[in-house]
Amino acid sequence: MIAESAALASSEDGIASLQRSVDDAMVNRPMVPVAPIDRKAAARAAILQGAILPILLRLALPTMTVLIAQTAVNIAEAYYVGFLGTGALAGVALVFPVFMLMTTMSNGGLGSGVASSVSRALGAGRQGDADALVLHAIVLAVVFGAVFTIGTRIGGPPLYHALGGRGDALDSAIRYSNYLFAGAIAVWIVNLQASALRGSGNVKVPAMVTLVGALILIPTSPALIFGFGPIPAFGIGGAGIAFGLYYGGALIVLSRYMASGRAGLKLRLVPLEGRLFADILKVGFPAALSTVQLNLTVILVTGAVGVFGVKALAGYGIASRLDYVMIPILFGLSSAVLTMVGIAMGAGNVARAKRVAWVGSAVGVGLMEVIGILVALIPAGWIHLFSHDPDVFGPAQTYLQIVAPAYGLLGLGFVITFAAQGAGHVLWPFLGGTLRMLVAAGLGWLAVWYFGVGMMGIAIIVAASQAAYAGISLIAMASPTVWRAAVGPGGDAELS
């Protein structure tokens, strides 16, 4: 209820907020009072006509800021779990890629399909379809969330064992996983609702809900892990319970807000239509497969590192967690790119959409490369947050000093992937993710099992996979098929 009050008290129509914030960025256009009924149209016009970088940053910064806060919660959780011992830390490392698979599938995978569909519908002036897409997204969320809850309960133990989990590490992984994925349906619904709002240009409310939840989780997680007053100590399972409580609260807040009609999109009961499911899945399903590739790559590399022992596994888990920290930052930027590209493509302004993609890519490369170089120069600043064990520190340091400087390539590929999704095309991004997986996971396993390479060899291969991903993404930017508006019967660009 605290999260609900804060979110609703501080929120307003997202499109109206965008209108006030981006009008001053429009070229040679003075601020003019806009009647409430015209705010959506005015915001759409701003996205289609205003200076790209200021509008992009205004759309991206709220999501980026709050997702960074949420990432801080994940870091804090790993810090707390570190006090439970190396076995618990290794257990989290085994589960974390699967949890991130669910998170990225719901946000950047199927969530991209929802955001793309909503933004293109609004760009073409089809408000009714945009509203109906919200209910269709929730139906898909229930299905996919149930798959994760049941799948991890049945398949989790053998998976964590296959990845190198033994003894205390395996026990910790199973306990953490069972609690964490019990709330998978709530996670999916919240993330797809937030994606729909972002697709409409309403970034403030999802940001506020996430921020308030992050502020609550930071003290709640250690209380449930170690116990506090009447709260019993749940150990590593407490971290999973805390996430479930947060997403359950966020589900109530967002559902009530969207049903109120204040969101710019209205959640209401409508007949389910195959064409709307298809519109989401034509982008969302291939995009979800791309996130599977991303996380499967990490899972397979985790399995390769598991050959080196529990401490190397813990070190890799610490280092690769930083790789995942980059994802929320890039997601905030890329979701703004997707929205702007989708609205421009829906309006038939292909040149505008492509300029947005290039500007967003430049921002992503610059931001990621600065972070990567700093981490490579001072890796201890990150590693010592979780462990001072020299046998854990060594593998983590080696990985970061080689992989972190390639973060700029990750940024390039990631932003272009979302831009292509906003345009309604997913083939080239999917091929890029496939090549990255084959290089990182395929060559990684061969290098470990047949050539006996250590962490340095694996890190070099992972960095090379980022270069391959960026290269394929550049092909997408040059493809005339991606950047072509095909007008369909609904009035917006058809998916190919």
Account of the protein in words:
The two termini are 44 Å apart. Residues 1-37 and 487-496 have low confidence and may be disordered. With 496 residues, the chain is mostly helical. The chain has one domain (2-16, 50-478). It contains 18 helices and no strands.
Descriptive terms for the model:
mainly alpha, disordered N terminus, 496 residues
Describe the secondary structure blueprint for this structure.
Blueprint: H1 2-10, H2 14-22, H3 39-49, H4 52-82, H5 86-123, H6 127-162, H7 167-180, H8 184-199, H9 204-226, H10 237-259, H11 274-306, H12 310-346, H13 350-377, H14 380-383, H15 390-403, H16 407-422, H17 427-451, H18 455-478
- Strand-and-helix sequence, N→C? HHHHHHHHHHHHHHHHHH
Main β-sheet: number of strands, strand sense, barrel status? none
Structural class: mainly alpha
Question: Helix amount, in percent?
Answer: over 70%
Quick structural overview:
With 496 residues, the chain is mainly alpha-helical. Helices cover 79% and strands 0% of the residues.
